[in-house]
Amino acid sequence: MKINFNMKVKPYQKFAKYYDLFYSDKDYKRECDFIVEVVKKYGRNLGNFILDSGCGTGNHALLLVERGFKVIGVDISNEMILRARNKVKIKDTANVPEFMQGDMKRCQLNQKFDVCISMFNTLSYQIKNQDVLDYLTNIKRHLLPGGLLIADFWYGPTVLRSKDDNLIRIKRLEFGKDKLIRIAETTLDTFHHIGILKYQFIAIKDSKIVEEFSEIHPHRFFFPQEIILFAEMVGFDVIGLFPGYGLERKIEDKDWECVLVAKV
To answer: Are the C-beta atoms of 261 and 240 separated by less than 8 Å?
Structure first.
């Protein structure tokens, strides 16, 4: 069955330049703490080479290199990669991430990694079943024996519990007379396990609208046995599913973000 979205503008094509402003309150440090905790617990014999799949503007990668890791980041959005590279240019240190544009469903980096992280719902951008299989297969191909995959995604049980809630969210950022507004409306396709996020962005400067555009971001949500089956089908050994971001408790139906931890 075909799944089609009328996307005149690709995800992050225009949003990229405002991305870090809208997510300035995102706790990247906590997420990197979790990554380090997982590596210490389940990858004791591994090295420090990380593949950041869906690296965005490079925020996880930049924090991880500060902790002694070597990181290569890959993202399908050229606009996001350009912003990640600009951050590297102003770093006064030799140990910086490398960023490249590519689709991890099919790109070949000709390198093997100890760990692959796939954060901020990059896995959920794999919409069709074959997309998920291709994505996980290619990641496994890039991991060393015993290598770890750490991937977060929308947790299906929580999404369905929330389907009758108000699925319109408005976020405003104000800088004096200048404002950025993002209106996010989510429509659920429960047959295909997809949340269709329609973002509308409005940029206001000196009390006048200077830019207005929309982007559609489809997100696949996964159920526990579904994502475990996908991972096992391509050869991963699933260690567990955890709430984002901690190893201390089991995932519950109140958790929007679930983290898959698996080993080659």
So the answer is: yes
3-state secondary structure 195-246: EEEEEEEEEEECCEEEEEEEEEEEEEEECHHHHHHHHHHCCCEEEEEEECCC
* 231 and 214, same domain (yes or no): no
Instruction: Report cis status (omega within 30 of 0) of the bond before 23.
Output: no
Examine the domain organization and report whether 35 and 111 are in the same domain.
Answer: yes
Burial of 22 (0-12, 13-18, 19+ CB in 10 A): middle
What lies within 8 Å, CB to CB, of 78 at 6+ separation is 101
64 DSSP assignment: H
The pLDDT profile of the chain, 264 residues, written as one tens digit per residue, is 556 555 566 889 899 999 999 999 999 999 999 999 999 999 988 999 999 999 999 999 999 999 999 999 999 999 999 999 999 987 767 789 999 999 999 999 999 999 999 999 999 999 999 999 999 999 999 999 999 999 999 999 999 998 766 689 999 999 888 999 999 999 999 999 999 999 999 999 988 999 999 999 999 999 999 999 999 999 999 999 999 889 999 999 999 999 999 999
Q: Which two tokens stand for residue 189?
A: 């396709």
Which range marks the domain in which residue 67 is found? 26-154+223-263
What's the Cα-to-Cα distance from 256 to each of 20, 181, 217, rounded to whole Å? 21, 23, 17
